């Protein structure tokens, strides 16, 4: 049975963490995976999370099964956060939300659901996109194509080409979009460009699937959530996967959600009944701890306030690291231009480093980045940045 099984390649992102963990160099730096580290190089445990956990421990609640679609208070809090409590899709009960095992789990639920009810559709992801998008939708049975997105010459979005590709897609194509903080490039669309994208997607009967894993890391919670709200206001169908891994620093708790917007409350009820079948046949029902923590924070005004402040702190520190990255490289590699790093949003920078340069960083300096040149700016800190800049300048 097993003799013909070939060795699978390492995961392009998590495989880097495996190699990093095996590296004995004490000065190693992991700029691969999208994880926020504080200035001491530690993954923070947020104060709002500590306080919510203290409240939960006091209750000593029994650990029963959650409903298939997750904790009701969590699903409600996610809807309010993602769509706005007073949005039409929430007040008219046209949106359904199911707790999911991280943002990845939410994407997989959406992909499996779509494979059951729109199997003839093909999926379109940005070129480039998060490495796992293609694999996830292919493993759900879809053909996955790219639409043009990043322009290496301008370091921005090739908007005209993207729009033209959308206009060319067959109706009912599934279009995966990054709601904010594009992963891996950090290049986002402008408000005006989104207006045109929403118009084309809606009028052509395409199915938008918004992935929002970094809400709050771009320009703020409200600002980063605007794209989802604007799509929701344009009417369904709409799929939204969101994650609290980064914004609550709850990576290992796997807390995310899938929301679907339908045309009516009655349709939404039928969708939820089918989504529950997808969940039940995959993992039955989600784990409870992370969902309890997020629901507690989002529904307790003081904790919610604290979360917003802590998230703003992470956002500001990343921006400071971007600025330091640019100015230090200007000193050490004046022939090269890195100002574009300041325009990028979220945790990542598509640095322009090529595969060979990334390989040299790893082999000569124990600095780990994704082969495409994506670096996680949120892993830079005041102690490691000089080493990183010197190393980058030496491989340019
Ligand atoms: C990333 O892009 O590095 C993160 O989303 C982590 C992951 O699961 O790949």
Automatic annotation (TrEMBL):
Domain of life, per UniProt, equals Bacteria
Annotated keywords: Aminotransferase, Pyridoxal phosphate, Transferase
Q: Entry's Pfam families? A: Aminotran_1_2
EC number(s) in its UniProt entry?
A: 2.6.1.-
Domain Aminotransferase class I/classII large, which positions? 28-392
Q: Which PROSITE patterns match?
A: AA_TRANSFER_CLASS_1
The UniProt entry, under InterPro entries, shows: Aminotransferase_I/II_large, Asp_trans, NHTrfase_class1_PyrdxlP-BS, PyrdxlP-dep_Trfase, PyrdxlP-dep_Trfase_major, PyrdxlP-dep_Trfase_small
Q: Which cofactor does it need?
A: pyridoxal 5'-phosphate
What the entry lists under CDD domains is as follows: AAT_like
This entry's Gene Ontology molecular function terms read: transaminase activity
Q: Which family does it belong to?
A: Belongs to the class-I pyridoxal-phosphate-dependent aminotransferase family.
- Tell me how this protein assembles: Homodimer.
The record's annotation in PANTHER family points to: AROMATIC-AMINO-ACID AMINOTRANSFERASE (PTHR11879:SF37), ASPARTATE AMINOTRANSFERASE (PTHR11879)
Q: What's this protein's name?
A: Aminotransferase
Organism name = Undibacterium curvum
């Amino acid at each position: 049975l097993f003799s013909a099984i070939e060795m699978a390649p390492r995961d392009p992102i998590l495989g880097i963490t495996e190699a990093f963990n095996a590296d004995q160099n004490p000065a190693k730096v992991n700029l691969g995976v999208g994880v926020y580290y504080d200035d001491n190089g530690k993954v923070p445990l947020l104060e709002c999370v500590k306080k919510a956990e203290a409240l939960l421990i006091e209750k000593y609640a029994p650990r029963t099964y959650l409903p298939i679609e997750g904790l009701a208070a969590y699903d409600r809090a996610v809807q309010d956060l993602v769509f706005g409590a007073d949005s039409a899709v929430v007040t008219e009960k046209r949106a359904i939300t199911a707790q999911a095992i991280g943002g990845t789990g939410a994407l997989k639920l959406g992909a499996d659901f779509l494979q059951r009810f729109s199997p003839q559709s093909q999926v379109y992801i940005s070129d480039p996109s998060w490495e796992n998008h293609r694999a996830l939708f292919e493993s759900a049975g879809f053909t996955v194509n790219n639409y043009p997105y990043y322009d290496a010459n301008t370091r921005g979005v090739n908007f005209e080409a993207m729009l033209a590709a959308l206009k060319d897609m067959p109706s009912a194509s599934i279009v995966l979009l990054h709601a904010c903080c594009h992963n891996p490039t950090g290049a986002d669309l402008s408000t005006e460009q989104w207006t045109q994208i929403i118009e084309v997607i809606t009028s052509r009967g395409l199915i938008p699937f918004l992935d929002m894993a970094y809400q709050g890391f771009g320009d703020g919670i409200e600002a980063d959530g605007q794209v989802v709200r604007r799509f929701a206001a344009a009417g369904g169908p709409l799929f939204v996967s969101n994650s609290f891994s980064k914004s609550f620093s709850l990576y290992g708790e796997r807390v995310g959600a899938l929301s679907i917007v339908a045309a009516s409350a009655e349709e939404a009820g039928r969708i939820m009944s089918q989504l529950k079948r997808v969940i039940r046949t995959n993992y039955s029902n989600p784990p409870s701890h992370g969902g309890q923590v997020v629901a507690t924070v989002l529904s307790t005004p003081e904790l919610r306030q604290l979360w917003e402040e802590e998230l703003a702190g992470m956002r500001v520190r990343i921006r400071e690291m971007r600025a330091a990255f640019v100015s230090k490289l200007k000193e050490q590699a004046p022939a090269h231009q890195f100002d574009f790093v300041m325009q990028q949003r979220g945790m990542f920078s598509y640095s322009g480093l090529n595969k060979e340069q990334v390989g040299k960083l790893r082999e000569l300096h124990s600095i780990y980045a994704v082969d495409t040149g994506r670096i996680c700016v949120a892993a830079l800190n005041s102690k490691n940045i000089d080493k990183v800049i010197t190393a980058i300048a030496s491989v340019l």
